[in-house]
C-alpha cells in the first residue's frame, strides 16, 4: 500500500527495494519459489523507476542480480544466470572505481561466474569467478562486515577449480583463505558454521589428491562442528548433515576392508534421513538432492548386505527425487542414472528382466539427452554397459554383450587416466569381455579382459572397498584363460588372487560369498588339472561357506549351490562315496529350482544335475531310472542353450558321452546312433572350446568304429580331429604352452593311424602320422613358406601374409624367451599381442585359401605331395600304438605304401626298452662328453649294480622291428657305396631308441645288423625331407669351426683342439674360405657373424638342451650360451651341413618323442639340410676318429661334398667300431649315439 501511495519515482523505487529485501528473507527461510519471484519483479520495477545517474541505481541492479541468482536455485534455468550477469555488469558500469560499494558488485559478479561454472564446467568461468572474488577481498577493508563471506566464497571457488582441474596449489590456497577467516570468527558468529562447512569441504577435496586419512579426518571433524553449531537454521543444517554424510561415506568405503566396520555407513545413512526430514517444505531442488543422496547410500548399503528392502527404498526415494527435479535441471540426468543403477542392482537380486530393461531404457534416454562432454558421461556409460552385461548373463543374447562391450569401451576412452572412473571402467569392461568370451571363446576377449583388470588393480588404492571385487574378477579371468589355453600357471594365479580377495573382503558383506565361491572354483579347477583331492576338499569347504552367507540371495545362492553340487559330484567320482553323490544331487536340484528356464545359467545347472544322476547309473547299471533322468535333463539343457553359445558344445559332448555309456551297457543301436549324432554336432561346431571339440571328434570316431557299416564315418571323424590340431596346438601360444598341449594329445595320432591301417587306408595313415609329427616346428616352418604363385596373382595379399608371418615368428620366439620379471600388465599385453598376430595370420590364411586355385595353400600335405620324400631312398615310418605296430614304407617308383605289420612288437615292449636304455645311460652317467678313461671308470663302478644291457635292446629291435622291414624291402648286404640310403621316421618310444644300430652283437654274422644293409638317416618329418630335396643348391661358402677346449663353467674338452686340427687339415686342402673360432675368440657375436657367410658349421663344444622350451637349447661359448632362438632368427642363406660334436645334441624328450625336441632338429629348422649329431654324449677321444673319417669322405678330391654326409658318418662309425669293437656295452655306448638327421 505504501508503494502505491508514494508520489516520487525515487521514493517508490526505495520502497520496492525494501519490499524485495523482505521477500528475499522470506525465501531464505522457506525456500519457496513465489517469494523470490515476487522479489525479482519488485527489484526490476525499482531499477526501472530510477535514472542511471541516481546514486541508488547500482545498488538496485546489484540486488536484482542477487535475486536472479537466488531464483536460479529453484528454477535451474540458465536465463536466470544470464539476467543476473547483465544486471551486475550494468551496476559495475555505474559504479566509480573508488566507490566503496564496488566490492559488493565484485562479490556478486564472482558468485554468478562461480554458479555458471557449476553448470558449464568451463575453465574460463571459474577463473573469472576467482578473479572477481579475489578483487572483492582485496578491496574490502578488514573491518567490513561482509569480508568474511567474501573469503568463504573465494575459498570455495579455489576448491571447485581444484576439484575439476586438479591443480593442488588451488586447494591449498583455498584452505589457507578459509583458515584465515575461520580462526578469527567466534563460534557464536552466525556465519561460523558456514565457514567450518566450507573448510571441511576443502579438506575433503584435498584428500582426493593426497589420500592422506588425516585430511579426511579433518574434513569430518570440521563438518561435524558445522552441523553442531547450526542450531536454528534448518536449511543450512540440512546441507551440513548432507555434506557430513558424504565424508562419512568416503571413510566407510576406505575402511570397508576392515572386518565389521560398517559404523560409517550406518551414520551416513542416519544423517541422510535426518537431512531429508528437516528440509524446508519449499526447497524442492535441495530436497531432490537430499533424496538422491539418500537413495545412493541405500544402493551402496544394498551392495554390501543384499537386503532387498534397501534397494526397494532406494528406488522409491530416487523416483521422488527425479519427480522433484525439473526436466531442464542440470542434475536431472544424474538423478535418472542413480535410479537406473538401482533398478540394475535389484535385477541382480531378483532376476526379473523388467527391472533390467527399465534400467537400460532410462540410461538410453539419459544418453540421448546429454552432450558427449557431459562431466558424468563416464558414469552414465558404466551404468548402461554393466546393465547390458548383467542382462546378457541371463538372456545369453550376444547383441547385448556386444553393445555392453562397446559402451564400456567408450567409458574407458573418456575416463581420465588413473582416475577412479578409469579404474572402474576398465574393471567393468574386463568383466563384460569375460562374459562374451564364455559365449564365443574369442581369445582376444580374455586377453583384453586380463590387461584391463590388471591395469585397474595396479591403480586402485589397496584400502578401497572394491579391491576385493577387482581381485576376484581378475582371478576369474585367469581361470577362463586356463579353460582355453590350459596353462597351469593360470590356475596358480587364479588361486592367489582369489585368496587375496577373500582376505580383503568384509566378513559380513555380500561380496564374501562371491569371493569364497570364486576361490572354490579356482581350487576345483586345480583339482581337475592335478587330480590332488585336497584341492577338491578346499573347494567344497569354500562353497559351503558361500552358501551359508547367501541364504537370502536367491540368484547368488543358485550359483553357489551349483558349484557345491558339481564339486561333490567330482569328490564322489574320486572317492566312490555315494553320500557325496546324494549331496551333489540335493544341491544341484536346489540350484535348478532357483532359476527360471530363461536364465542363461539354467542349462549349466541342468547339465551338472544330469551328470550327477548319470553317475549313479555308471556306478550301478541297474539304476536305469537315473540314466533316463540324466539324459532327459541334459537334453533339456541342450534345448535351452542358444544355438551358437560356446556352452552348446559342452552339452552336445556330455549328451553324446551319456548315450555311448548307455550303449555299452545296452548294445542298443539307437543309443549308439544318438551318441554319434551329438558327438558329431559338438566336433563340427564353429564355437566353443577347441579341447572339447577335439575330444568330441575322438569320441565320434570311437562310436562310429563300433559299427562296421560306419567305418567311413569313423575315418571322417579322425580326419576332423586331425584338422583341429593346429587350433589346439595354437601358434598364438608360446612353445612351452604348445608342448604342454601336445602332451594332452597322448597317442591320438598313432591311434588314428592304427585305425586307418586296420581299415587298409595306408595313404591316410601316412598323412595323419605326418600331421602329428613335429607340430611346433612345422607351424614355425609354415611362417617361412615361399609364396611365388601368390606373389604373381595376389601381390598385395602375399605382402600382407608375409608381413604377418614375419611378425608372428618373431613374437613366437620372443614369447618363449620372455622375462618373467616383467610386470603382470606388460606380460599380459605381450601375450595379447602374440594372440592378435596369430589371429591376423589365420585370418589372412583363410583369405588366401578362399581364392581360386589356393584352397590347399599351406594345408597339410596330401600323400601325393609327401611321397616325393623317398626320391633318394626308402622312407620308413614306424607307428607304435597299443592297438598294433606297423611300418609304412615309401619307396621311389612305387605309388602304394609298403606295409609291414610288426606282429611281434608291442607298444609296451617299446616303452620297456626306452626305460631300459635310459637306465643304461643313467647308470653309466653317459650324459657329458668325457674321456675313455673316465667313462670306463664309471662303467666299472656301475658294473656291480643291476643294469640293463644295450646289447639286448639292440637285439630286440633287430628281431622285432628292423629285420622284418629289411626283409620286406628286399635289401642285400652290399658295399657301403652301394647300400640303400634309408630314412627312419619313427613314433612313440621308438623315437628314443637307436633303430639305426639294431642288430646282434654277440658274435653273430654282420648280416644281422642294420648297418650291413643300409645307410641310416633320421628325419623329423617327411615335409622337412621334401623341402631339402627341392631346395636349390648354392655355391659352397666355406666352414665355420667352433672349438672350445676350455669353456667357463664347463668341464674341459681335452680333444677339442685335436678335433679342430683334423678339420683344418682337411678343409684347408679344399682351398675354401674357412673360419676357425677357438677359446676366447668363440663369442656369441663372432659365431653369429660367421654363420651368415658359411655353408658348413662344426661345433666342438658343450651343448645344453631345454626340453620344454627348445629354442632355449644352446651351445656353450666363451661369453655365454648361443641359444637356438638366436640361430633360427639369423639368416643363414648358404646353410648345408651342421656337425654337432657336443653333448646329447639329438636326445629328445621321452614324453615328446615325436616333436624332435633337440638341437639337431633345431639346426634343421634354422636352415641346415643335414646334421650329424649324437643321441647321448660321446667319449672325448672318439671325436677326432669320427671327424677324421667324416672329413676324409666329405673332402674327397679336395672338394667339399656335403650331400654325402650320411654315408661319410656311416663309414666313420664303422671305422670307430673296428677300433673299439662291438661286443660289450662300453663299445656300443661309444659308437651307437652317432646319427645323421636330414638329407
UniProtKB/TrEMBL annotation:
The keyword Calcium does not apply. InterPro entries: CHAT_dom (IPR024983), TPR-like_helical_dom_sf (IPR011990). Keywords: Coiled coil. Pfam families: CHAT, TPR_10. Residues 780-807 form a coiled coil. Residues 954-1238 form the CHAT domain. PANTHER family: FUNGAL LIPASE-LIKE DOMAIN-CONTAINING PROTEIN, KINESIN LIGHT CHAIN. This is CHAT domain-containing protein.
